[in-house]
Write a structure and sequence with these properties.
two-stranded antiparallel sheet; alpha+beta; globular
């Protein structure tokens, strides 16, 4: 199937009511989990420490946190124009330190926001006690939509791939990202988990470099609980480059 035929086929879906009903005026809630591909889980569970002075208790705590990060849920709320994506703060862990480690490993308290009308895409995060609102390119990813399909949660999904580079000043190297997502035109929205969006259909699965794997576990197309979808406020507005420069400076100050 050629790219043109795929896009015509997807466009046909976009102008039809979904089999679950018209979503345009509704709030939708999608719950995602984070995991690793099965073949990588055993290696990921083995934490290696360069510093032999790390205590056994701390090793166990970090090891426990590494396991707990796969129990953390994330939720995507969206309506016709806006979306909000954040971690669900409901993890019951007796060890508070392990809980904090798990949240850090899972992406922390980052809140993502997107607005299709104002063409805004950003996330809010706290670093060194200060909140930052990090503004991203609205078309963050240029997607290549393929003809490969599979069924996810009862929806026919298409595979899309992309590529993104960023320079890591802390490690003095270029980082390359190869996101792969599966989206369904049967739910016509351009939203998705963890910034993986911008496609003609809701993203139900996504991964980056085959490591960080997000997948939808629940799709509520008529969410009735009260939720306010609005742009995060009270954070210092910076570009992604400016934020990375700030993080680099903080890291260098801490490490001399």
């Amino acid at each position: 199937m050629t790219y043109l035929k795929i896009m015509l086929f997807i466009s046909f879906f976009l102008f039809l009511p979904t089999k679950k009903g018209d979503l345009q005026e509704k709030t939708v809630c999608v719950t995602y989990k984070m995991a690793l591909p099965i073949e990588n889980q055993s290696n990921d569970a083995k934490i290696k420490f360069a510093n032999n002075n790390v205590s056994d208790d701390l090793r166990k705590t970090i090891g426990k946190a590494n396991e707990l990060k796969y129990q953390i849920d994330f939720e995507l709320y969206y309506n016709k124009n806006e979306s909000l994506y954040k971690m669900v703060d409901a993890l019951e862990v007796n060890n508070d330190l392990a809980n904090r480690f798990a949240k850090i490993l899972a992406g922390g308290k980052k809140i993502r926001y997107k607005n299709n009308v104002t063409k805004e895409k950003l996330y809010q995060i706290e670093s060194s006690g200060e909140k930052f609102t990090v503004n991203l390119d609205f078309e963050e990813y240029l997607w290549n939509i393929t003809s490969e399909t599979k069924m996810i949660n009862g929806y026919k999904c298409y595979k899309a791939t992309s590529y993104k580079e960023e320079y890591d000043k802390i490690r003095d190297r270029k980082n390359s990202f190869y996101p792969v997502v599966w989206f369904t035109p049967e739910i016509p929205s351009s939203f998705g988990p963890d910034g993986l969006d911008g496609l003609p259909g809701l993203v139900l699965e996504g991964s980056a470099n085959g490591k960080k794997f997000m997948y939808a576990t629940k799709i509520n197309l008529n969410y009735i609980d009260k939720i306010v979808i609005e742009k995060p406020s009270k954070g210092k507005n910076v570009t992604e480059k400016e934020y990375l420069d700030i993080i680099t400076k903080i890291f260098k100050d801490i490490n001399g």
